[in-house]
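ok so I'm stuck.
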Amino acid sequence: MLLLPLLPTIPTVSSKPADHDFLADQPDASPTPISISVSIIPALPPDIIVKTLFNVEITITNEGDNPIYDIEVTPSMPEAELTAKYLIYPEPSLKPNKNAKYIFCFYGKSAGIFTMSIPVSYKGHDGALHSQSKEVEVPIISPPSPMSVSLVVPRKISLGDTFETRVWVTNDGEYTISTIEVDLEPTTGFSVISERPKVMKHLDRKETQCFLFQLKAQTVGSFTLTAPVSYLGYGGEQLSKTGEVEINITKTSTLITYSIAPEVIHVGDEVTITGQISPPVRDSVHLTFTKPDGTQDEVTAPSTVDGKFTGTYTPRQEGKWTVKINWRGDLEHEAASTEVTFNVGKACIIATSTYGSEVAPEVRFLRAFRDQTVYSTFAGTQFMSVFDAWYYSFSPSVASFIASNPPAKGVMKGVLYPLMGILHLSTEAHSLFNFNSEVGIAMAGLVAGSLIGAVYFSPPTVIGLLALKRHRKRQLTVGQLRPLLVPWLGSIVLMLLAEVTVSQALMAVSAGVFVVLTIALTAGAIALSILRHLY
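replied:
not stuck anymore, here's the structure
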């Protein structure tokens, strides 16, 4: 608060000595006229601001021919409090045509336009008491007390969520405001669950305060959240401001978790899909099975009160399957879906019988090589159609024999051991050409065919050629295998043609011929090389 400089306090203009003869100083006993002039001086120009000081400067002029004494000036106004009084006049009496100046310091308590009464009493030359008064209007203003209100809510609010709303209140004015009360207006979309309203005693100039409220989303839809704020301005006047924000309450998000069994699926096995809707909902879940040929079957799996469901299905086609698990949602919950793929194949029945379980590491590796490497390509898939026709023509009886003869299992483990290494190397060859999976599977087939020919077929080929040599007495050379190179190279060309034309039949035949001739050429070349060194 700005205070005007203090002036020395001087007593009211004093009277003449008690023995003075008043009548001797003036020719008649008529009242001595005076004039009263008033100036209002704000402490913070140009206006008088409530709760600040202002000065009232009163000038008394003796307009008569005789001096006056004992001047009393007592300005008053109920809406202002007198804090100090000063007199600027050094003489004990006010002579004709002279001025006496008084300064009164007031503190404005309220805002408005008020009337100040200024009564003046004095003694004339005749010793009689005279009085005169004047009224002036004093405008006291309350400065602007602007406020801004903003609301912040989460970006995503789902039905049933408890969420926090922040109401930011800023005093944008230059003066302190008080008794701030912040509330939220409830609607059908949500309820306010925290204590309300929030109250703050005062907020300084340019200060910002945050008020926190907890709300609960009750209805899906878009709603307007309104925050009314009431407060007292600097002058004590009641003011208000309102902030708003749009809230979009969405359905509750849902999630589907699942598991699929068995881990290894063969044609004709029953596939069981179990899962749960979270949060729990009692409804029906739809399982859409997409077959390798693109056709679909749908299974409905009812869910229980805890959201759990179970669905079963028996695949009848070999290959890659997809099942979409879908819940369509309801009035309060969003729909949810997920998708899973699995391979349905024929069992590696010889390996399974040898190692005793479909989940044995060796069996799992063979299955992974078939499903993830070979079946992942067009050429590999068509080759497997030919291979399976040959393999499953004899494997069930072989597997049955191995399963019932423990010694045979040990023998077969020894027989299959090199195959594991060969297929590991084939997998590495495939990964080296991962820039193109079709080229990669062709290189894997070349490596596998060559090594299988070397390991499994070259020994019996050596024995067969020895018998043939002794029987026919002919000289055998590697050059005699050249006629096989022509169809081998031709199979490669046909494989390329099948890739371009996407011909399944051509690819099945050419890939089968390529692998068989690779085995034959490798086994023959190794066997002939061995015989050449023996003879």
